[in-house]
Amino acid sequence: MLSKRIVTEREAVQLFENVCYTTSNPSTVEFPAFMSAVNKELDALDYALRLSRSEQDGEMYLAIVNTNQDSLTELATNFTAVDMGYIRELYDIIINADNENFGISALTALHLGGKMIPKLSAKDAQTILDKLVEDQWVGLKAGNYYLTTRSIAELQDYFKQQYGDTILECMFCLDMVTMGEHCANAQCCVRLHKHCADGQFNNSVDLKCPTCSTRWDRNNTFGLGLLSDSS
């Protein structure tokens, strides 16, 4: 868990059960209670176990997150100060992308370093991007970089503090949302994760926005992370 930093909830539960079996100490507590107990110990170290759903498929993940006020601390342990300047710029463009795309094209990301002071070569920028993908801080799909479950889980508080109302929240789960479905009414601010929309609309015949009652079209999506690789 410490080496991966983020695993599916199913993997975490399996790991918990394996530890109990290996130590011949069958647990008398459920996994949620175990998590709560672990978090009490981690709190003094500015760490916590946090559950977060994938915006793409709704699967639940468990991440070890740094709860320090400067949430980028965890990133900074693996990158230089110049690298971190690039990463901040990368996140800034993703968060402020036009049309609620919440992404950046691979080409734009590659040349972003050339606009910095000091400049980063395209080769150095690619090295940073590859490391971010490898460590699951960003994802790459259909030629675009986007925020991953790990970024949402660990950096959500930082993003909200840094960008305020630019950060969208899912109306149902109130978590940060960077890809999902939106109301067809341009004046309506309702945004939903696809898995939250599934829970609301899959068994409904008359699909309507929960706020303005506009007919809900499930093809009205946003976020580059939802694009297929063939797009």
UniProtKB/TrEMBL annotation:
Signal peptide: none annotated. Keywords: DNA damage, DNA recombination, DNA repair, Metal-binding, Nucleus, Transferase, Ubl conjugation pathway, Zinc, Zinc-finger. One of its GO terms (biological process) is double-strand break repair via homologous recombination. It is found in: Nucleus. Its EC number is 2.3.2.27. Its main location: nucleus. One of its GO terms (molecular function) is zinc ion binding. Residues 170-212 form the Non-structural maintenance of chromosomes element 1 RING C4HC3-type domain. It is an enzyme of class 2 (transferase). Gene3D superfamilies: 3.90.1150.220, Winged helix-like DNA-binding domain superfamily/Winged helix DNA-binding domain, Zinc/RING finger domain, C3HC4 (zinc finger). It catalyses: S-ubiquitinyl-[E2 ubiquitin-conjugating enzyme]-L-cysteine + [acceptor protein]-L-lysine = [E2 ubiquitin-conjugating enzyme]-L-cysteine + N(6)-ubiquitinyl-[acceptor protein]-L-lysine. It holds the Pfam family zf-RING-like. GO terms for cellular component: nucleus; Smc5-Smc6 complex. It comes from the Eukaryota. The keyword Metal-binding applies. Component of the Smc5-Smc6 complex. Belongs to the NSE1 family. Acts in a DNA repair pathway for removal of UV-induced DNA damage that is distinct from classical nucleotide excision repair and in repair of ionizing radiation damage. Functions in homologous recombination repair of DNA double strand breaks and in recovery of stalled replication forks. This is Non-structural maintenance of chromosomes element 1 homolog. It comes from Parasitella parasitica. The lineage of its organism: Eukaryota, Fungi, Fungi incertae sedis, Mucoromycota, Mucoromycotina.
